[in-house]
Structures are given as C-alpha cells and as structure tokens.
Amino acid sequence: MRPIVQSKKLQNVRYDVRGPILVEAQRLEAEGHRILKLNIGNPAPFGFEAPQSIVADMVTHLPDAQGYSDSRGIYSARTAVAQYYQSRGLTETSVDDVFIGNGVSEMISLVLQAFLDDGNEVLVPAPDYPLWTGAVTLCGGTPVHYRCDEENGWNPDLADIEAKITPNTQALVIINPNNPTGAVYSEETVKGLVDIARRHDLVLMSDEIYEKILFDDAVHHHTATYAGDDVLCLTFSGLSKAYRVCGYRAGWVMISGPKHLAEDFLEGLTLLSNMRMCANVPAQHAIQTALGGYQSISEYIGPGGRFYEQSKTAWRLLNEIEGVSCVEPMGALYCFPKLDTEMFGITDDQEFVIDLLRAKKLLVTHGTGFNWFEPDHFRLVTLPDVDMLTEAIERIADFLATLRR
C-alpha cells in the first residue's frame, strides 16, 4: 500500500505553541511526571471561571440554539458587537459589518482564505501569534515578518515595515495588545501603521483579542478609529480572554472603511461562512450579555487583581535573574523575556525549552516559535497565581544557573 502523507500545503506551516515541546510534555506525563504548563493562554486551568451571567444566558437559550443560525451569526450578537464599536467612536458600524465565528482563530482563517491568492505577501509582526503566519502560508500567501522593537517597548518598527513592502504586498497585520510581548501600542505607532497602509493601499488586519486586558495607564487604540473611510480595516476580537471563556469559541471580525471597494471580497467571505453553516449557536447568545453587562475584567487588571499582580510579579522576578531581561508587559497575559545566549551557551531555543522541561517539569514556549528572528527569547504565560508563578520562575532561575558560563 502507498504511504499516506500530509498535504504539501503544510510544508512550511508551524504552530510551536502546541508542537514538539507539548509532545515531549505529554511523554513525561505518561511516565508519571506532573508538568506545570505555561505555554498556552488558557485561563480555566488556573482557576478563572466564566462570569455567571454568561453561563446563565447560554443555559437559558439552549432550547433555542439547536438549529443552524444565519451563517454570519445571530442578529442579537452581531448587533451587540456593532454597538460596542459604535460606543468607541466607530459610529458608522452596522450589524451587516460583523461576522461571528468559532473564536478569532476561525475568523482569521476564513478571512485569509477569502482574501489571498498564491504569492500574495502579508506583513506580519515578529514576534507574532503563530496562527497568523501559519494561516497566511496555508492559504497560499507569503508571510513577511516585520520587526517589533524591544528597545521601544516592543512597538513595531515602522521603517522596517516600509522597507519590506513590495508590489506583492496586500495586507498589514497588527496584533495589539501583542501576544507574546504584552506590548500595547502607542497612539503614534497605531497612526503610523495606518498611514503606511493608506500610502501603500494595504488592507489592515487588526487582532485586538486582548483589548480589555490593560495595566496601569496603558490605553488601547482601535486601529479602525484611525483608518477612517479610506482604508479597509478588519478588526478581530472575541470573548475568550477578557471573559475567561476560551472553550466557548465566540469571536468576530468587524469590517470598516471603503466597503464598496471590497464587495467581491466580502462576497467570498460570505461564501466561506455559508460553507461552514454557522458558528456554534449557544456561545453566540453569550455575546450580548458579555458586551452589555458588568465588565468583570476590571476586577483583574488593576492593583490587587490577579492578572495585574501576576504579570507584575513575573516581570519583576524574571528581571532579577542574572542574564535575563524582560520588557514590562502593559497588557495581555504573557512575558517575553530575553536570554543572554552567550552567558548561557544557547544556540537553539527549542532545545533550551525542551531541556528546561525535562529538568524542571516546566513547559514554556521558545521565541522562534513566535517567528522571532534570534534564539534568545521565550514566552511565559502569567496565568498561575503568584505563589505558583514564583515557584515556576525559581525553577527557571535554578536551571539557568546550571547553564551559566
């Protein structure tokens, strides 16, 4: 019999957040080891629960959620999303500008499938959430990574973006607040990104899933606010992080700008939405309650709140390790520390995290897994409580001490 092999379309697709390091962690677990997994931003295993109002709303609507919905999403959910953006200054947003999906991940894939032709180039930040790079590749496009500047709070390097634009460049991806760095882009940076898209006739794709998780005086600036009516902007967001319901899979994309010039693309996006019938209906009923009700996220992101205290603790403890430096995250759920590779003799960051896993039973993700250029970073999820996070970073410090030259 002939061997059955994977599609050649997957040849350059990676998703290292759940790649070889997770396979090794599962092998160790099968041997009886307990692994502290700090590789995925999933709040539920760390004691974060969905707001009861959201759970109750889903339960109440279950009898009405047994059939397919409109492929774009139920009307009440799309209306709630449209009104959310209207309240933030995007007053022209209408219900027809919103598509609901099974999380932001699905909407990214659908949008790129509808948008890209083979060879189209898409500017993607480095470091990035690797789904963007993988999905661009899988859809036949070419991801071109622009550098975010660690010395400037991980804000994108606008000059580097300009230098990488070619006649094949079709879109510019923005991840703000950023995963994995925790950067929240300044207004000046967001305006600069929009200006680049305007001058080079690029579509903006703005991933804003962490928009409500902000620390101290950080302010999130919606890309669409500055794109106006002359730059097509696709804004992605959802419930998973701010409302602690990753498993509900409730996300959306909102389209703004010159939609009359994008009718053909939107027809394609509608076609793909129809082909998957609809997003899961029960979770769609949670969207109106989530966006319109009490915003419990406020309890977590200020001093004394878990997200806040855990992020600040991780950042402080990482910077206390000789040979490690970390830019202070201003949002999201991660730290992205830098390692002195010469001091620690590190040439392969994936090998480093696997060695750390085997020695300390601690799972993190290597920086090149987020398409960073050098093997000198790793991402740490800051979801465990302060005591557990402190123990985790002590394990990292102990392991690095064995490597220090």
UniProtKB/TrEMBL annotation:
Where does the Aminotransferase class I/classII large domain start and stop, copy by copy? Answer: 36-396
Output the InterPro entries linked to this UniProt entry. Answer: Ala_Aminotransferase, Aminotransferase_I/II_large, PyrdxlP-dep_Trfase, PyrdxlP-dep_Trfase_major, PyrdxlP-dep_Trfase_small
- Which Pfam family, an example, fits this chain? Aminotran_1_2
- Transferase recorded as keyword: yes
Cofactor(s) it depends on? pyridoxal 5'-phosphate
SUPFAM superfamilies recorded: PLP-dependent transferases
Q: Which family does it belong to?
A: Belongs to the class-I pyridoxal-phosphate-dependent aminotransferase family.
How would you classify this enzyme at the top EC level? transferase
Known EC number:
2.6.1.2
- One MF term from GO for this chain? pyridoxal phosphate binding
**The keyword Transferase is annotated on this UniProt entry:** yes
The organism's taxonomy opens as: Bacteria, Bacillati, Actinomycetota, Actinomycetes, Propionibacteriales
Q: Which UniProt keywords apply?
A: Aminotransferase, Pyridoxal phosphate, Transferase
Question: What is this protein identified as?
Answer: alanine transaminase
**Domain of life of the source:** Bacteria
